[in-house]
Write a structure and sequence with these properties.
Layout: H1 13-29, H2 31-64
């Protein structure tokens, strides 16, 4: 029911989980989609790694001075 805030708090897990698995399986099935996902994840991890390294260097210089 959508009246007076009586809608369910969370989606039914027995329906949501298989749909997510199906979508992920469908996305990974196509080579182009797989390449885009792999590039996105690898670039994101590279940016995070550079950021953490830069922050560590910044903290080391700040502590020494």
């Amino acid at each position: 029911m959508l009246l007076y805030g009586l809608e369910p708090r969370d989606p039914r897990k027995d329906v949501a989980t298989p749909m997510l698995r199906f979508k992920l399986k469908y996305l990974l099935n196509n080579k182009q989609n797989r390449l885009i996902l792999m590039l996105t994840v690898s670039v994101s991890l590279l940016i995070i790694g550079i950021g953490l390294f830069s922050y560590r260097e910044y903290r080391m210089r700040w502590i020494r001075s």
